[in-house]
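#lab-general

N.A. 3:47 PM
ok so I finally got the sequence cleaned up, no stray characters, all 302 residues accounted for. can someone with queue access submit it? mine expired

B.Y. 3:52 PM
send it over

N.A. 3:53 PM
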Amino acid sequence: MNIEERYKARIDSMREFTYQWNPETYEDSNKPILKITKSSLGTFNWCKIKYLYNYIQRLPQDQTEAMRKGTVLHNHREDFFKDFDIKKASTMNNSEIIEYCTSLMPVDEYFDISLNVAAFEAQRFTEAQSEDKIDEYLPIVNEGKFDAEIIFRADSSKKYPLSRDYVIHIQGIIDRIFIEDGNLIPFEFKTGGWKDYKTTSMRQEMAFYQLLIENAPDEVLEKNGLTRDMKVTHWGWYYPAANYVFVEKITKRAMTSVMARIVRLIYAYEKNNFTEKFYAPMCSQWCSYYGICPAAQDSSWL
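B.Y. 4:20 PM
back already:
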């Protein structure tokens, strides 16, 4: 299966629920009316009209180099942990471990980033050996799919009051979950460059993962090798292009922000309000809908 087929299969597996909003035919209030993923929520926060184009109208968008790079490198990282042999690595010295980790990385146009990943993983394995924690080196979850349903009450927000209660289906693929002393650490892998201003958005992404894990039914947890008594205590992210790794204790503020953003998304559906949030230098570079965006065509925004 090539890169494009593998990506399509992963996305197709998440299409059981819908981004469409049909309250007039919503007869069973115990069923979810809407699907929300980390990506869809992030897109809504970035720009409401981009969310409209992408998730509701489902307009096609060209695959950018950044999108392809992300897909390729995520596949490499998933395969690395599938292929890594703990028993074999345990017999190696430091230089041999670096060579072994490098050998698990495909030689392609992103090999420079793969070398950073190999060096990072070799160091992590060596540290796990020295601390007698080799059993915690491999992730307990490697590209795990999670589903959960959450009830949002009409009075969840004073600023964005909803007309009724809603059951929302949240869904996502968590890059990795590591375990340390019985506690869970979801870990995100990013293939772009690191900037300090991304810290806030990363915390919200990780809080979404925490929300998924804590609300997933037992069968979803079991499928991913988890149990109900395991708790998320920390989260982290890794940007190999910048050799940037960060781990911290979970923050309640990030979870509060994620819940508030979900309410705002539901409210936007109720009011059918998906207006643009436009900044020409950034939108022209990163938005594949720039050519049809009303704000981009209006010179008063420039």
